[in-house]
Design brief:
Elements: H1 10-20, H2 32-42, E1 49-52, H3 59-66, E2 70-75, H4 78-87, E3 93-97, E4 100-105, E5 108-112, H5 120-123, E6 126-132, H6 143-153, E7 154-166, H7 181-188, E8 193-202, H8 205-209, E9 214-222
Parallel strand pairs: 1-2, 1-6, 2-5, 6-7
Antiparallel strand pairs: 3-4, 4-5, 7-9, 8-9
């Protein structure tokens, strides 16, 4: 199996990063804000079905599955899909989801596809959408479509846990793109939006050289 998508724009940027091994965005551990606030979700849904757009090979998927959740990632770069299970030292089962190649093991399924090419008929519906650095990775022109697509996957009463970065975009172009609170309000209206926490986190060499020493990483619960 190989990746099917011919990426353009921001997606091409991220595909090149995987190909060349420039994956500083891959944390290799559970995201701190996810770990700090997952209890808010588990209090309502102890065993949730969770969708992770642009999942990469994030350790978060494994961490959530080991807590008893059913996790489905969508990732358009095959090296990231297969790399997730290699890092976990698993031999996943190859399957198809909505006609797209996917791998599955231990409560985690990762589909290799463009998210916009998938539908709820193929994936089903989810209690939670966990977006860590997906919205910030996309071209601004696709944001509204992305949010509407995510919403179509949510079950009634489902929530979004959004982790996004904000910084002075005038100093450096994206991706990752700066997502301010006002933009979150605009994109996700009229849903209830609660910012749970904001932390300063280190940034990349490229942004550091542009005079951006840190990013403000915020986590939002959108119900």
């Amino acid at each position: 199996m190989t990746k099917e998508l011919k990426p353009e724009g921001a997606l091409e940027f991220w595909a090149e990063r995987w190909t060349t091994g420039q994956t500083g965005f891959h944390e290799g551990k559970p995201n701190d804000l996810l770990a700090a606030h997952i209890a808010r979700i588990e209090a309502k849904t102890p065993r949730a079905r969770i969708l992770v757009p642009l999942s990469g090979k994030a350790f978060d998927l494994r961490w959530l599955a080991e807590r008893g959740h059913e996790v489905v990632g969508i990732e358009f770069v095959w090296e990231a899909v297969s790399g997730f299970f290699e890092d976990w030292k698993l031999e996943p089962s190859p399957i198809e989801v909505g006609g797209k190649p996917a791998l599955r093991a231990k409560g985690v399924t990762i589909v290799c596809a463009d998210m916009f090419a998938l539908t709820p008929d193929a994936l089903g519906h989810f209690d939670v959408i966990y977006d860590r650095a997906a919205l910030v990775a996309l071209e601004p022109s696709t944001r509204t479509r992305y949010v509407e697509t995510c919403r179509s996957f949510l079950s009634e009463g489902g929530v979004t846990l959004l982790v996004a970065f904000a910084y002075d975009q005038s100093r450096a172009p994206g991706p990752p793109f700066s997502i301010e609170r006002a933009l979150v309000d605009e994109l996700y209206a009229p849903r209830q939006i609660e910012r749970l926490e904001t932390r300063a986190v280190p940034t990349s060499k490229r942004l550091t050289e542009a005079g951006i020493a840190a990013l403000d990483e915020s986590v939002y619960l959108i119900a």
